């Protein structure tokens, strides 16, 4: 059984933007909308995503430092060594 079709109005900018996103992923617009609606594809705020990636990098670095008994350096020490 096929789900009922729905109408959606988009501006040209919205239409071409969605087309561009689908093309970047090498999928059709229909596939893009299916993936978004099923949760298979998410929309992320680039700044929040960058913050999360930075946090993951920091946690990885801390784990590596702990494994090698390396101690972190404070910002105060860095500034002092740079003459600030």
Task: Describe, in short, the structure shown.
This protein is mainly α. Helix content is 62%, strand content 0%.
Structure characterization notes:
The protein has 84 residues and is an all-alpha fold. The radius of gyration is 23 Å and the shape is elongated. The protein has helices at 12-24, 29-38, 46-67, 75-81. The model has no long low-confidence stretch (mean pLDDT 92). The protein folds into 2 domains: 10-43; 44-84. The relative contact order is 0.05.
Radius of gyration: 23 Å
What is the N-to-C order of secondary-structure elements (H for helix, E for strand)? HHHH
Estimate the global geometry from the Cα principal axes. elongated
Could you say how many structural domains there are in total? 2
Outline the biggest β-sheet: none
How many helices in DSSP terms? 4
Report the β-strand fraction as a percent range. Answer: under 5%
Question: Spans of 5+ residues with little confidence (pLDDT < 50)?
Answer: none
What is the structural class? mainly alpha
Quick one: how many beta strands? 0
Mean pLDDT: 92
- Alpha carbon gap, first and last residue: 71 Å
- Kindly state the percentage of residues in helix: 55-70%
């Amino acid at each position: 059984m096929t789900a009922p079709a729905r109408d959606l109005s988009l501006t040209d900018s919205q239409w071409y933007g969605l087309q561009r996103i689908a093309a970047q992923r090498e999928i059709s617009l229909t596939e893009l909308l299916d993936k978004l609606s099923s949760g298979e594809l998410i929309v992320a705020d680039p700044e929040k995503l960058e913050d999360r990636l930075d946090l993951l990098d920091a946690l990885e670095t801390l784990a590596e430092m702990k494994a090698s008994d390396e101690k972190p350096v404070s910002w105060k020490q860095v500034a002092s060594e740079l003459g600030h």
